[in-house]
Design brief:
Strand content: under 5%
Low-confidence stretches: 1-9, 11-31, 45-52
Order of helices and strands: HHHHHHHHHHH
Structural class: mainly alpha
Number of strands: 0
Distance between the termini: 25 Å
Number of helices: 11
Radius of gyration: 18 Å
Mean pLDDT: 81
Length: 192
Amino acid sequence: MREAAAHLRETVCLTTLKASDIQMDKKTKKNKSWRAQLSYLLKNSTSQRKRSTTPTEDELDQWAESMDTLLSSRYGRIAFHVFMKSEFCEENLEFWIACEDLRQIKSPTKLRSRARGIYEQFVKCESPKEVNLDFFTRDAIEQSLHNPSLSCFSSAQTKVYSLMENNCYPRFLLSSLYSDLRSAAVQKERHS
């Protein structure tokens, strides 16, 4: 009972974090459980973040309608990232976010640098957060790095998105994390 209450408290507090809080410092061990990660993030969150609103029951219902809705929500991205980290596949979401951020770059110099960084971190064989891509997609990206464009990762991003949508997203909706977030939202609305 005590563990369930702590789990619920951590889950409710999760919703007050910023998307930028997803990244943990390098000293934090990579294989910590998602509960330990939440505790770490909670200790380092500011009181201003604690005052921000949490997702409503309606918002959580919308997350269940499509992965696009989940990913467009600040809290949805955080919750999905925490879940994917617990499933040891967070590199897929991080790659997808990096590709989305790349599309916003205007400067050709920054574009070239950021494209190279994404390749080194996620696409290159034996990279630290290598995503699962076929040889042809990986090779096409490598060739496009000579003159990168805003869409040089589009094919790979689509494949990774599809993988998340068909595998991780359904498991997220069935997870205890999502269930606890829903319960907390329902409970909060009853007390309001």
